[in-house]
Amino acid sequence: MEARSLAEAFASFEETWEPRVLAELNDQQVKVARLDGEFVWHAHEDADELFYVVDGDLTIEYRDDDREDAVHLGPGDLTVAPAGVEHRPVAHEETKVVLFEPAGTKNTGDADDSERTVEELERL
Amino acid sequence: MEARSLAEAFASFEETWEPRVLAELNDQQVKVARLDGEFVWHAHEDADELFYVVDGDLTIEYRDDDREDAVHLGPGDLTVAPAGVEHRPVAHEETKVVLFEPAGTKNTGDADDSERTVEELERL
């Protein structure tokens, strides 16, 4: 049992698009990440994904056969990207986010051969 | 898909020790609660429980056969109370927390007949 500080977690790395694992519970993981710019379109077939913005300016874009949609998040806002729905995070400035999702969820989901894929996440 | 604001969530109620459900994902729930003073000792047999302090001053006390322990949390700090471990949140001032735990986790866990038990959680 220990306390983990979000501020210390973010101070420990500078890389963008490389989530770190901060805590685990109930087969889920709490991750912290710095985002900047556009990510790749992807979906997680079996995993809902929570985004919580600590600091910054983030849009989660969605698309499916019928329509496009977007959710805008500022500091203190959260949203859930549902399993199976194609989405793309777009950070309009460097943005600090907390992610919550099942352990083992890949950052790029079903996107093929993305340079953005991080296979082994560092644990803080 | 929608954005939820923590500030708006906390502005929507004043009651202490009555968690509200803010979001659900992967059979887990994100709850917000105001805590003040000492809660009851309890454990959740099958559920780890995450506490994230948005604002305030919180100690999670632990006890088992061998020892006592305590984790102190200020704003921006989080901790995980492991399943099956008896614990008691103590808020030294009114404290806003985000809880993350499996859907259906009872706030008072295995504590008998607690007046603090909330059977039906309000959804925000």
TrEMBL record, chains A, B:
<dbReference type="Pfam" id="PF07883">
    <property type="entry name" value="Cupin_2"/>
</dbReference>
<feature type="region of interest" description="Disordered">
    <location>
        <begin position="102"/>
        <end position="124"/>
    </location>
</feature>
<feature type="domain" description="Cyclic nucleotide-binding">
    <location>
        <begin position="9"/>
        <end position="77"/>
    </location>
</feature>
<feature type="compositionally biased region" description="Basic and acidic residues">
    <location>
        <begin position="114"/>
        <end position="124"/>
    </location>
</feature>
<dbReference type="InterPro" id="IPR000595">
    <property type="entry name" value="cNMP-bd_dom"/>
</dbReference>
<dbReference type="InterPro" id="IPR052044">
    <property type="entry name" value="PKS_Associated_Protein"/>
</dbReference>
<dbReference type="InterPro" id="IPR013096">
    <property type="entry name" value="Cupin_2"/>
</dbReference>
<protein>
    <submittedName>
        <fullName>Cupin 2 barrel domain protein</fullName>
    </submittedName>
</protein>
<dbReference type="InterPro" id="IPR011051">
    <property type="entry name" value="RmlC_Cupin_sf"/>
</dbReference>
<dbReference type="InterPro" id="IPR014710">
    <property type="entry name" value="RmlC-like_jellyroll"/>
</dbReference>
